[in-house]
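README: folding subset

This subset contains proteins for which both the sequence and a predicted structure token string are available. Records are stored as plain text. Below is the entry for Membrane protein insertase YidC (573 residues), shown exactly as it appears on disk.
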Amino acid sequence: MNQTRTFLIFAWLAVATLLFLAWTQERAAPPPATPGTTAPVAVVDSGDSTVPAIASAPLPQTPTARMTAAPAAAATESAQQAPAITVVTDVLQVRLDGGAIRQADLPGYPQTTAPGSAPMRLFAEDPAHFFQAQSGWVSSSGPAPSHEAGFIPVLAARTLRLAAGADTLEVPFLWQGPDGVSIRRSYVFTRGDYAVQVRDEVVNAGSRPWQGHIYRQLLRVPPVVKTGFTRPESYSFHGAAWFTPQDKFEKRKFADYLEDGPLDKQVTGGWIAMLQHHFFAAWIPGAEDASVFSLAAPRGAGERQLALIRELGPGVAVAPGARAVTSARLWVGPKLVKRIEAQQVPGLERAVDFSSYSVMAWLAGLLFAVLAFLHGIFGNWGWAIVGLVLVIKLLMYPLSAAQYKSAAKMRRFQPRIEQLKERYGDDKQKFQLAMMELYKKEKINPVGGCLPVLVQMPVFLALYWTLLESVELRQAPWIGWIHNLTAPDPYFILPAINIAVMWATQKLTPTPIADPMQRKMMQYMPVAMGVMFAFFPAGLVLYWVTNGSLGLLQQWWMLRKYGEAPAKPAKAG
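--- output ---
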């Protein structure tokens, strides 16, 4: 198969890919209402035989005071809540109380590339974008603090900053029950870390045993994601995800949140999360903690649909005069591969959701590792993509050399193919048989151009997911007009160069197509491909332009080395 037909193969595969992506695009519709979301949650024993199963302690699901549309109700509830404390570190700026992180900004990640852009806000209090990480306690043996009320700040300051030279900042809260039981909750922030340590210490100074279970949950309004080929975020996964040692990584998108049920999975270790484009939040309990993972879709203020994922457990039994400690990590930040791997949590790297298919996810992860290595050399993600093409070209040189050598031979014998067309006229079957006989006699491989493209297609698709998901490349510039490699080229310069490269490649390639209509279609193929590439991320177009340009250079060299200028067909008589 010649290089021209290679374009047809790639065009078909690329169009099929776009159709598949459009079909699987995340829907922005909110999840369906589910009855019974405020019913008590049955809890299995955590493994401690002294802690009974809790089947009668209801769990708060919606922060009514913060979501309500009634100002009077909001004022009444707010008076009972602990005041919020603002915490500023080198990578996070959050507002929190004892039961929830209400708001979280990421100073290192502006929302847009415009100068002075506000930082990315992951957690938010406003009803339209509500998203919080919450944690509280339930007990069948006495009072317990919920995420809505109970904890009060220990420190008087309402703004705390990580001091210069300090590595950690601790923010303590305290709940004191009427029966002598107290719970001290500490949020510990670490310099350069998006993982917040949340530690609860239960002290029983009373005269009766106290039993309880801690719950940790993520609650949000499902985001409305604008769709379209020019919006790569619309193809990224938006929804809940969880990992268990038994079933590994699983996820549920917001559009069909409870389609397969409320989950209710008994787990030891693991983690729960809510994922979105480039960022995520996750509760990571202790590796030996027994808990129950569950999903719910409660209603908020104004019947606004919410999505909730919860981890309930472990249970503790605290005798009089004793104490118990339980802790978890809360990730609040970007999908930074190296930072996530540094947490040493099994499966947490899957939060960088390169693909639902494990093979494609593995290949995308491998490509990112190579890109990251090259970025360390060049200091620029655009040049790292160019370097990636060079690496792939070197690895595939034997295949591509065979392809271009075959194309050079076909160019050499193009006049004889034209003679066969004239000889057999409209008899396409005889023409094809004669042409195949010529290929066989001259040892020309007609399918030599297919294999390199077929091998590169998985690489191309994996790179698409890499560019889509890698927050490291978010808003990353290349040169000149390319200020964001994960967004389309704003001036369509790279797609135009791609058209020129494909047109030049086509001119160097013999086209033994008898049908005039097919030949005309092939002439317009570079334009059609260029228009399609105009809506791809600039980094992906850069990859293909570099690949095509090197291929064009390699083909020109092979024609000089192996090909001869095609002689004119001999005239009859």
